[in-house]
């Protein structure tokens, strides 16, 4: 998982706090519509840092996609998965990261209302895309090393799997688009403070808890379990491999081939 995705995960946990949601009493706002003072220098510094991350995410991952598209030799199953990771990060860098930090610093939503729904949706979808793709890569490497004679992903089956990943990620992220809305607070008659925050539906009850639990399981616990299991088994197989009756040089050659399978060069 690269820097832009890790930044997105941090941002999501940070912005989900909803500092300016209606859960806070409006009496906490000053007449200027702020909760706390943020030094201008800090705002500028973070804007530069986040802007740099966005630009690097778009350019760097865009180059990865370009190399894979232009070079037929690079269009392997593993590289298709890598291209999907890069695509998710390009989308993240363009449509999510630039908007994630500003609400907590500026303490108001300064962009168009539709971006209040789009940015969280893209963030959640991109994280799901990246995590699910990393999980599939781990499964593919597991079978390549431990079960080399069993059928592997073909390009066609890889495209089908990636299509399913996109479908699940897009649909499961819809609550972010549906329930994030711009709310306008009035700390004083002449001051309007627009805020982007989640407004969960009353029915069905406990929908918010169920959805957050789904994200915890789907984006973290289950992928972590699968990836950890796969690579631990691969590591044990490679480093503890002993083949009776075969010379040390031949055994080392087998280990080298297995390492190449793990890296995708097979």
Automatic annotation (TrEMBL):
Localization: Cell membrane
GO terms assigned for molecular function: neuropeptide Y receptor activity
Keywords associated with the record: Cell membrane, G-protein coupled receptor, Membrane, Receptor, Transducer, Transmembrane, Transmembrane helix
Residues in G-protein coupled receptors family 1 profile domain copies: 60-234
Domain of life of the organism encoding this protein: Eukaryota
Primary subcellular site in the record, as a coarse category: membrane
GO cellular component: plasma membrane
Presence of the UniProt keyword Cell membrane in the record: yes
Pfam families assigned to the protein according to its UniProt record, in alphabetical order: 7tm_1
InterPro entries: GPCR_Rhodpsn, GPCR_Rhodpsn_7TM, NPY_rcpt
Stretches that traverse the bilayer: 42-69, 81-101, 121-139, 159-180, 210-232
Membrane topology field: Multi-pass membrane protein
Family: Belongs to the G-protein coupled receptor 1 family.
UniProt protein name: LKR
Species of the source: Acanthosepion pharaonis
